Known about the structure:
The protein is α+β, with helices and mostly antiparallel strands. Helices cover 33% and strands 26% of the residues.
Amino acid sequence: MFxxxxxxxVEHLECEEKIIELEKxxxxxxxxxxxxxxxxxxAEQIFLCKFSVKGINLEVAKMVPLVAEKxxxxxxxxxxxEDALLPNTMYxxxxxxxxNYYYWDSDSEEVYIYFCDDYDNPFKVSDSIVAFFEMLDNxxxxx
Length: 143
């Protein structure tokens, strides 16, 4: 798992405390696989992942970091809540090169992409965080 991460020789143990803090702040529970990802690879560079879902070509260029100076998970959630464009159950996980963001639903763990020019019609990408990470891994293996 996590074949899409370029640098695998690091660990980000500071993310464990950050996850606890964010879970309390937002009243959510991070999916186990997402916790593992953040503790191991938060803010690490990834390969460009290209894949197709229901005939729609998609890509992931960057994962949303937990601990970062800019465009962090918390900063994006704050901006999203201020803009009131998304349901409060949606939390950012990744983005593509065009500024479209992927979100996981804290109720269902489903992953959606919200296209920046059409927030009213999110596109379901996967049924779970695990399935999303598997798609990213498979995109690297099939490239």
